[in-house]
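We modelled the chain as a single entity of 154 amino acids. Its sequence is:
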Amino acid sequence: MTTSTDFDFFTGQWDVANTRLRKPLTGSDDWDEFPGVSNAHTVFGGAAHFDEVAFPTLGFSGLTLRLFTPETGLWSLYWVSSRNGLLQPPVHGSFVDGEGTFFGDDEYEGTPIRVRYTWSEITADHAKWDQAFSADGERTWETNWIMRLDRVKR
């Protein structure tokens, strides 16, 4: 069951191992690996959550804002990159049995796509996030970015 505290696990600082497909939706299997560091915070008693993830070897950062809507029981997730400062269209979804799945509409290099974010393998000190695109109405999905997150111990 989705609640306003679903992302409380993510509060804190995380080391992020990124694996990202260099050319999504081209049939390529050329992946890039790079580090990141995420600092995550919760506000509004958990009903809003945000994190900034820095990618020092790539020279940019990203910010995700997560908002819980009690009336629908859904989360809305918004992404913005320091590269262009543009807030991307949201993905919406919920958690079921400890895994979060979120869908939205966007475009990639002029092609309309469906976007899917998945949060899984969640423990107190580890989590996995991945992003996938579908350009064929959700008949097939291509995972193009995977983040493996490990809590920074103090």
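As a brief sanity check on the tokenised model: The domain at 8-151 is CATH 2.40.128.20 (Lipocalin). The first strand starts at residue 12 and ends at 21.
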